[in-house]
Design brief:
Radius of gyration: 26 Å
Strand order of the largest sheet: 8-7-6-5-4-3-2-1-15-14-13-12-11-10-9
Distance between the termini: 48 Å
Low-confidence stretches: 1-19
Number of helices: 17
Shape: globular
Structural class: alpha+beta
Number of strands: 32
Amino acid sequence: MNRTAALAIALLALPMATAHAETRQFTVMSGGKNVGHVTANQTGSTIAIDFNVKNNGRGPTMAEAITLGADGLPVKWDITGTTTFGSAVAEHFVRKGGGATWTDATGTRSARAKPGAIYVAQNGSPFADQIYARALLKQPDMTIEALPSGKLQLEKGETLTVTGKDGPLQVTQYTLSGIDTTPETMLLDAHGDLFASLSPGSIVVRAGYEGEQDRLRTLAADWSTRRYVAINHDVAHHFTGPVRIRHVRLFDPHRAALTGLVSVVVHGTTIAGVEPDDSPATPGEVQIDGAGGTLVAGMYEMHAHLSQDDALLNLIAGITTVRDMGNDNAVLARLIDRIGSGEIAGPDVIRSGFIEGKSPYSAQNGFVVDSEAAALDAVRWYGARGFWQIKSYNSMNPAWIPALVYEAHRLGMRVAGHVPAFSTEDANIEAGFDEATHINQFALQWVIKPDEDTRTLFRLTALKRLPALDLNAPRVQHSIDLMVSHKASIDPTLGIHENLLLNRDGMIAPGAVDYFTHMPIGVQRSLMQGWINVSAPGDAQAYTQAFDKLVAVTRMLHDRGVFIVFGTDTGGSFTYHRELELYQKAGFTIPEILKRATYDSAVYTGEDQRKGSVEKGKLADFFLIPGDPTRDLKAIKTIAMVVKDGTFYFPQEVYPRFGITPFAPKPVVTLPAN
């Protein structure tokens, strides 16, 4: 009998509820800092859970009440509180007899519940992992039907020993899949109780064992890497000879138009030639039929916080380069090494050095500093390691900004970032910022008071003041004039503001309508949930009008010649495609958008000699779509093939590994006769 079966039998003998009260406490950690807690109190068959996280001035606050049936499955599950950005949560599940009814942000639903099916909470705390794991460990194949739909599956990994206040403890790694595009990693003790839920960047760990967090986060990265190494082994195609892609047109950024039909030949990592379509093949070539589609150079996602989990998804969305705007430095370094070595697949990374001031609202990325001297030391650390720019954040002392900018420029780095609390974007630009970050950061200076604190969700909720703003007012025009005179650029991230201001409970997010049905059930439910609380009279309309105002400001900047970079801050991939669409509202033509996402961004980052267009001698970084993106930008969502550094990927082979339904079939590939 294997250990998994033995553990399952042992668990069957364990009562799921005991007569005495039992408390389990967990610490939530991000970037090595304590940012919240999970406390679960179980009495009999009921569990009361308090979940509270505050990182970067925001985070979820939830209260859960779970009642377990005799089979250990929830028969009642109530969740109330607020999400990360403040939207209200009132989720309720009841299972009775053969039926189940639940209410979440998508509405009220009911279904016949198959025996043994388990409800997956939309807003459950990390303690939900224990509920799912205990149910799955009882199944011979560790698979169980899920409500609202789909299946959950648990996969066992390695066992290790951890140490803490209660002494050494043996825990086993398990991976839970079926909810999201990325499996969840957890550690369970010998009784099947949750010890930790973890990722490379954060961890929820049993109280008293916080000292293990560095080691466990490193292990989480290693376990995740193994998964992506295996995927890459299966889906990355390395052809030994030349590859000829026939019957394709190219998006030519120099003319902002498509070429006629050509053949593109790739050899190794480089585009060996762009030839007439009827050019004869040479011996030993692989041939790919582009079927009259379009090749577009790899795109630049200019506001990423890249993780191993979204690296491949970005790549097969046509994004071959990302600008990382703040990360755990060690985690990002390991990720870049793994991508660069070909161990896993992902885009190239342009690094921004994240520097935050120390305060109760600090974001836990990069360096958190408590003096100007420490800030300058951080700038020098990044400069010595070849970072492209510095990103300053909300809690930075405004008095330190001029020195920070001077030192970064002295070392050949640019400066971008958020507006420090109690300062303005105008002050940033006057101090020498090269780029403004987020359109809300730029616009808030016109509608908030000098003593109002933007380190909290206020920097988002204050946007409902925008509808009353006259964009022709001297104060507004002064800020735009400053951007023009200082030749500063801006990274508006329109898509995240669309999500924030327009997403509503029970409605598919406007930016997700084209990919909603392709996603796993957990993602679909999240795409039907509002981000902020719009319950107060007039708030929904005010936030809707605020988004229109932000788009109008972006249009004014574009009309005045301010350089606008395209980034998401929402993980890229599908949301990047939506980001590009939104700039049509800001006055860009479709060819302008394609040029900005490719060639212009390569020029902006100094990479245009090797990237940004499909030309002989440049890197083989491009993607294939069946349609004409210059006429309909939505064509970029139907990617059939991505090539990065001469390695070929077909999304039809990749997306099912993430529970995603593909958008386009693989092109016909003909191998040489020998």
